[in-house]
Write a structure and sequence with these properties.
Number of domains: 1
CATH topology: Rossmann fold
Radius of gyration: 16 Å
Distance between the termini: 11 Å
Order of helices and strands: EHEHEHHEHEHEEH
Number of strands: 7
Shape: globular
CATH class: Alpha Beta
CATH superfamily: Formyl transferase, N-terminal domain
Strand content: 15-25%
Number of helices: 7
Strand order of the largest sheet: 3-2-1-4-5-6-7
Largest sheet: 7 strands, mixed
Length: about 190
Amino acid sequence: MLRVAIFASGSGSNAENIVLYFKERGICAIDTIISNKPDAYVHERAKKLGVESITFSKNDFSEGDKVLQYLKLRQIDFIVLAGFLLKVPQNLIEAYPDKIVNIHPALLPKFGGKGMYGDNVHKAVIEAGEKESGITIHYINENYDEGGIIFQAKCDVLPGDTYEDVADKVHKLEYEHFPKIIESILK
């Protein structure tokens, strides 16, 4: 059975959604959740879900060796970034070619790049007067949000929508589509 690691930096709602989805299907084992923040709520979610979680420092990630050793020790086959805010180091990209996917809360190539995450993205969408937003699920490479696009889903941005409204619509798309797209890649 394939072994999957989830990288997350925040509350972990997408990570929880993915764990619950795959627990029902038995296609893969969500082996571990890795974070760069010891106080991230994702660790509490992991505990409740019975999934191992661990924190590596920003320095551990930038150097990459400790993280890669841990992934090899856990026999990880595939990595899912679910609200992970650090750049993935080159040695992990090389060790997991086309086996690291990310979800971005906008329709790439628009509103991507360093610093474009969470509410920053939704505020930029509103400020730009966009008529639609959505999600992009993509492979990662050495540049933020530039890896090959696997899937996109759209939602309308209506006149009068706040960035919070856009965030709600985008979260619904994330929860609906991300686990299914991961499943299709793993199969």
